[in-house]
Amino acid sequence: MRKEIILATLGLRAGYGGKPVLQGLEIEVREGEIVAVIGRNGVGKSTLMKSLVGLVPAMSGSIVYRGETIELLPAYKRARLGIGYVPQGRDVFPRLTVGENIAVGAAIKGDISEERRRRVTEAFPILAERWNQRAGTMSGGQQQQLAIGRVLIADPRLILLDEPSEGIQPNIVQDIARIMIELNRKTGVSIVFVEQNLDMIRAMAQRCYVMDKGRIVASLDNDALNDRDEMRRHLAV
Question: What pTM was estimated for this model as a whole?
Fold first, then answer.
C-alpha cells in the first residue's frame, strides 16, 4: 500500500525581488520517505528549501503539507505544523551553549521534556558531552549535529536539510547519514535534503529529483542512484 503524500508542490514559482527562481516546480514526498534534490550549483535548490519553510514567499502555485495548503503561512506557523529546517551553513547561535540552542528549537513545543532531550542526545551523543559549551567553539561537524538536534527536539514530521555535508569531514558526514536513516526508520519522519556529496546521496536517499533552471527535469529511482556515472552527470557543475 502506498503511503500518504506528506508534501507536494504544484506549479510553484518563488524567488527574490519579483524575479522567480523556481519556474513552476513540482515535487511530491510520501510519509516516511527520504528524498534528495540534486543538481548543479545555482539551479534553485536552496530557494526551494527556503520556499517550503516560508523564508522565500511563493509568487504563484501551491505548497501542500499533510493535505493543507501552506504557501501563505509564515515560517513559524509551518514549524508548528511539524516542518523542521536545517539551513545551509548550519546557523547555530554561536554565543549560546548547546543546551540553549536546543531550548530555542524546543520553544515551539514549550519546555524541553526529558524524553525529547534523551532522544536528541542518544542520536547525537556529542551534544550531551558539550551541553554547556558555546556553540561557536565547536567544529563544523559538531555544529551540524547541533543544528539537526535543534530541529529534532520539536518532533518534526518533515525535516528539510540544505547541504548537510558542506564543510564537514567525511567520517562525520557518514555518521550524520547513518543517524538520519536510523531516525527515519524509528520515527517515520520524512526527510528532503539538498546535497552535492555523491556518497551521502547514495547512502541516504531512497530516490531523488534533479533540478535545472528552477524546474524538476528528472526523477531518479534507487537503481539510478547506484549508477555513479549518471549521478555525476546530474551533479556536474
Answer: 0.92
